[in-house]
Every structure is written in structure tokens, then in C-alpha cells.
Amino acid sequence: QAKAVDPDEDANGMVVYSLKQNPNNLFSIDEQNGAISLTGLLDVNDGSYQVEIMASDLGVPQLSSSFILTVSVHDVNDNAPVFDQLSYEVTISELESVNSRFFNVHASDKDSGTNGEIAYNIIEGNTGDA
């Protein structure tokens, strides 16, 4: 919420709020109390948004001042990793040497940063010391 104070009296001291710079019209402001709201979805790929907020008095001449509000967008972990295939099947020789790499799987995650990093684990299928 933006808050401005004007020490003048009467209309000269009454303050109204507006958005001077509003990227993609994603924000709105209550002109009476300065409450800022979202009007659309933010894109984490944009990183941040610069919103210029202006406070104006109702005097004649009308005086105003403004400031820049930086809104940073952080990614949430809302996408699960997805393998590039639903199932895999491979045939190898019984003579395959221990610890040899014989197959690769691949998954991707649409989240960014650490939320998009993937760790692979074998959760079942191993028997004995395999």
C-alpha cells in the first residue's frame, strides 16, 4: 500500500493515488487509500516489474510526487519433472561389466533455478547388490 501525506489544508491536502507506469497493465491502485493489487498473472521469466506510483493533491495548481516500486517475482515449485518417455526398456549382455554405463534417461522441469533441478534415483528393481 502506498502512503503519502500532504500537510496542506482542505483540497490542497487531499491525496489521490494513480499509476504513472504500469507494465502490461498488471497492477491497479485504489485512488483513495493507495492499496495496490494485481490485475493479471506475473511471469517469473520477466524477473521483476517497475511500477511508478504517483500521489497528487487536489489543489490548484495540482502538485504531485512519485516513486518507483520494484516488484520481484520468485518461481514456485509448481511443475513436476517429466521424463521424455513414459517407459524404457533395454537389453544388455550378461557379460556387461560392473559399473558400466549402458543407458541414459532424461527428464525436464519447467520451473527455474533450484526448483527446476532434477535428481535421479532408482526406487525399485534392484536385487541383491545390484
Entry keywords:
calcium, mainly beta, 3-stranded antiparallel β-sheet, 130 residues, 28% strand, FAT atypical cadherin 4, calcium ion binding, 2 domains, Immunoglobulin-like, transmembrane helix
The tally of beta strands, per DSSP, is 7
**In percent, how much strand structure appears in the residues?**
25-35%
Mean pLDDT comes to 91
CATH architecture designation of the largest domain: Sandwich
The CATH topology of the largest domain = Immunoglobulin-like
Distance between the termini: 60 Å
Helical amount = under 10%
Structural class from helices and strands? Answer: mainly beta
Structural account:
It contains no helices and seven strands. The protein has 130 residues and is mainly β. It has two domains: 62 residues, Immunoglobulin-like (Sandwich); 47 residues, no CATH class. It has a three-stranded antiparallel sheet with strand order 1-4-5, with no helix packed on it. A two-stranded antiparallel sheet has the order 2-3. A two-stranded antiparallel ribbon has the order 6-7. A hairpin with a 6-residue loop joins strand 2 and strand 3. It is rod-shaped. The chain starts with 14 loop residues before the first strand and ends in a 22-residue tail after the last strand.
